[in-house]
Design a protein that fits this description.
The chain is of the alpha/beta class. The chain is built from six helices and four strands, in the order βαβαββαααα. It has a four-stranded mixed β-sheet with strand order 1-2-4-3.
């Protein structure tokens, strides 16, 4: 069994810990990981920036960091750290819920733990497809970019806004 620890450093944030565990356990089962531990930490941007600087030599905050601590046949120990502040900003920009954006970061980080990468466009497409598959398989609305393009989320929102405006003006 894979044990999942969740540390929420954001005092006012209410997390759906059950959903987070369900998503991580599903990814572990799909990748044949039977034992280990995954720790998830929700932190603020200053904490994320410090970690990003320390481990990746980049002092800017980022959305998610993943650390594989130990791996073996059917075994994994790792950490996923996600930024609440970054999720709030991105969720507002993309008009999605903060909870959905954070869950996307957790899925993304967990996929990194099990071997997915996104350093090239082709690998990024595979990662996005895997993210979407996780959400769809668990019947959770997917907050990520459609057709592998973050621009499309904004376009879809703009189109909805135009339709609302058009219908109010009698054009739709």
């Amino acid at each position: 069994m894979v044990r999942i620890e969740i540390a929420n450093q954001i005092k006012h944030l209410k997390l759906d810990r059950r959903l987070i565990r369900r998503v991580i356990q599903w990814i572990m089962r799909q990748t044949n990981i039977k034992t280990g531990e995954v720790s998830v930490a929700i932190v603020d941007d200053p904490t994320m920036a410090a970690l990003h600087g320390r481990y990746l030599n980049d002092p800017a905050p980022t959305d998610v960091l993943s650390f594989v601590l130990e791996t073996g046949p059917e075994h994994l120990e790792g950490e996923v750290v996600v930024s609440y502040d970054t999720a709030v900003a991105k969720a507002k920009e993309l008009r999605v819920s903060v909870a959905s954006e954070l869950l996307l970061y957790i899925v993304h980080g967990t996929l990194h733990l099990v071997g997915y990468d996104d350093i090239t466009p082709a690998l990024r497409r595979k990662m996005r497809a895997a993210e979407k598959h996780v959400f769809e398989a668990l019947r959770i609305p997917y907050p990520g970019p459609e057709e592998n393009s973050k621009k499309n989320r904004g376009r879809a929102c703009e189109a909805k806004k135009r339709r609302r405006t058009d219908s109010k003006s009698g054009k739709g």
